[in-house]
Amino acid sequence: MMPFAATWIEEIIIVNEGSLLLESKINPNTAYQKQQDTLIVWSEAENYDLALSFQEKAGCDEIWEKICQVQGKDPSVDITQDLVDESEEERFDDMSSPGLELPSCELSRLEEIAELVASSLPSPLRREKLALALENEGYIKKLLELFHVCEDLENIEGLHHLYEIIKGIFLLNRTALFEVMFSEECIMDVIGCLEYDPALSQPRKHREFLTKTAKFKEVIPISDPELKQKIHQTYRVQYIQDMVLPTPSVFEENMLSTLHSFIFFNKVEIVGMLQEDEKFLTDLFAQLTDEATDEEKRQELVNFLKEFCAFSQTLQPQNRDAFFKTLSNMGILPALEVILGMDDTQVRSAATDIFSYLVEYNPSMVREFVMQEAQQNDDDILLINLIIEHMICDTDPELGGAVQLMGLLRTLVDPENMLATANKTEKTEFLGFFYKHCMHVLTAPLLANTTEDKPSKDDFQTAQLLALVLELLTFCVEHHTYHIKNYIINKDILRRVLVLMASKHAFLALCALRFKRKIIGLKDEFYNRYIMKSFLFEPVVKAFLNNGSRYNLMNSAIIEMFEFIRVEDIKSLTAHVVENYWKALEDVDYVQTFKGLKLRFEQQRERQDNPKLDSMRSILRNHRYRRDARTLEDEEEMWFNTDEDDMEDGEAVVSPSDKTKNDDDIMDPISKFMERKKLKESEEKEVLLKTNLSGRQSPSFKLSLSSGTKTTLSSQSPATNLPGSPGSPGSPGSPGSPGSIPKSTSQTAAITTKGGLVGLVDYPDDDEDDDEDDDKEDTLPLSKKAKFES
Fold it and tell me: What is the dihedral of CA 714, 717, 718, 719, to 10 degrees?
């Protein structure tokens, strides 16, 4: 559909069926371009392109002539202005060089100033020029003077413009501008400008809060005025960032990176100035530990120290080292020990936060302190024991403080962050100290609650606490080796822990089971003997049976523990479980774990009752795989290098390739033995009388080939291939000798069974090898055959 066009001298108006589609003023400096005889394109404002399309060339030519007439151009050209190939920033640079000229700072031009600031923000070059202009002309202070005028006149429109201007100056992200805005004389006026957000119906009252509500407390008098001013400035700038400026979703946070840096470096300066003031820190720790200090004052001192340590997290590593070294020299750990011994919950909470900073920074420093104080103080007042007691006595229903303290204890007892030097090992010294002086405090609630067959107290909060204790004990089992082993066995800890399997809280019962599973996972026979002696599978089996047919985490965890014992073939535990708990578990058939344990147990008994069978089984297992080609080549070379005179006639040839066969062609001797045990008992005794196998011998399969495809296989040991020995040529029971009865059919292999072990030989893939062996047997001297077999 072709739009109808009407033109005036300086405007293009497009109307379609009475509706105004476009009204555009023809700008003498705008570049209009005609394309393809029916299209006119141009740009208006920033990133706003227009295209006017015509169905007929005549309509396009008419409009094009009018545009050229206004701009004084020849209609025969396709473009009315010369295009300059330069970026927008370069055009702005040329236009504003050598610098940006700001409008005069007057009340009537506030709107113009606000538009200039807003238009400069999208371009980095414009922001740079605007920032330089604001710095050089002292423009910010002039704007703040206008702010006072607007407030006095209650000029709300002017105040809204000032809000936009100041917000835009923040977005310029310039440290030099922040230095001016956050100076003592300007910062409150800047905050005042930011109270008048045009989007709000009523202005905020930030200045009222900062001057009347927020109070600056000097817990220790600060004599340095510069330090005091820096503290005030940092608090107010932090307030601007957190409370005054728009949220990051609206206000691009990456454009405020310099503001974050300003606060960061202020905190670094504050920490450095306080750290250098020895009198200040000496007075601080003296009042903290003074019994005469009242509770309110002590709470203020602890809160200050907590914030002081929090500021230190902004320091560089080397500066943080110096900071904590200074605090350590001032006696922060003895001071914390005094504070943690007080009854005030809030003070203790703040002291715990300070202690966490110290532990996270340097756990070795804390360990060294507590080992030194153990030489002078009783166990009850040791710093670590105070931490454990606070964990146990946490009154929070969710045990938030206890969880934090348990994490700190775990860090302190973690061998991974302990140091080892040429003279001493921190792990040995500290763990020896911990198990002697502190472990009894940690396990006290566990031992107190497990004196009977079920937990004495089984409320939710107690269960949570015991779960935390078990979590730490489980960590110790994994990392402390003999220290925790001696403690568990001597104090009978595992039996006490398993009492918790009877808890009504599933998470606590699972914690107890996890503790035992961690112990079993070590496969340590000291632990295993302790478990068997005390019959410590009984609580687990009871919990399993009480759980019934429910398919839940308890069911799966218990089955997994028994499956681990079966898979890892922990013989002592397997025998103990089957001998004592098989009747209770034999009906569990939805998993094969317990039947598998019974099978393991029976196999162990068979091996104990008949060690020769165990030797045979290991022999057969070791020769189930083919030897590699290099071994065969070495043997053949040795055979050909042997003197024929050393050979004896009359011995059959055994090809090395026939001594071992594929895994798929040999049945599992253990399973086969179990199946045929009763049927072949008499045969087994008869054969065992004829053979004398030991664990060091390996069976060879002697294959004698006759005409056609008849094949006979016998299993014998190389060590028995002596004249007159069972299985040797010429002796009873060997192929080709009196008393042997070859049994073969076409395309089948006969099987000779010895000791109940069955070897099957049927190698379709070795037909070619067999043929080669057959030919070799026909051509080689008998003496070489005998040597090859030996």
Answer: -140
Burial of 143 (0-12, 13-18, 19+ CB in 10 A): buried
- Which residues have CB under 8 Å from 181's CB, separation 6+? 140, 166, 169, 187, 190
| Partners of 35 in the β-ladder | 39
Identify the CA nearest to 302 among candidates 287, 291, 280.
287
- Asked whether the CA dihedral 350, 354, 359, 360 is positive or negative, the reply is positive
Q: Which helix (H) or strand (E) holds 492?
A: none
How open is the CA angle 85-87-89, to the nearest 5 degrees?
A: 145
Query: For 417, how many CA atoms within 13 A lie in the half-sphere containing its CB?
Result: 16
Instruction: Identify the residue whose tokens are 């399993």.
Output: 544
CB 195 within 8 A of CB 204: yes
What pLDDT is attached to residue 45?
Answer: 58
The dihedrals phi and psi of 79, each to the nearest 5 degrees, come to -145, 140
DSSP per-residue string spanning 617-642: HHHHHHTSSPPPHHHHHHHHHHHHTS
Identify the helix (H) or strand (E) that includes residue 700.
strand 700-705
Please tell me whether residue 676 adopts helix, strand or coil conformation. helix
pLDDT tens across 470-521, in order? 999 999 999 998 899 999 999 999 999 999 999 999 999 999 999 999 999 9
Q: What angle do CA 260, 264, 268 make, to 5 degrees?
A: 170
β pairing state of 49-53 and 700-705: unpaired
Edge-first strand order for the sheet with 39-43 is 33-35, 39-43, 49-53
Sheet holding 11-16, edge to edge: 4-7, 11-16, 19-25
pLDDT in tens, 557-575: 999 999 999 999 999 999 9
The DSSP element (H or E) to which 480 belongs, if any, is none
268, two tokens: 């670094």
Task: List, edge to edge, every strand of the sheet that includes 711-716.
Answer: 700-705, 711-716, 749-750
**DSSP-assigned beta bridge partners for residue 749:** 711
State yes or no: cis peptide before 98, omega within 30 of 0. Answer: yes
**pTM of the full structure:** 0.60
Rounded Cα gap, residues 317 and 612, in angstroms = 68
